[in-house]
Amino acid sequence: MIVVDNMMKHNYQKQDKAWVISRLSIKCNLVVTIFLLFTGSAMAAMTDEVKQIQFLWDEVNYMADGEAKEKAFEKLVEQANQATLVNHNLPEALVWQGIVYSSYAGVKGGLGALGLAKKARKAYQAAIAMDGSVLNGSAYTSLGVLYYKVPGWPLGFGSDKKAEQYLLKGLALNPNGIDANYFYAEYLYEETDRLEDSFKYLLKAEQSKDRPQRPRADAGRREEIKALKQRIKQDLAD
Question: What pTM did the predictor assign?
Answer without folding.
Answer: 0.81
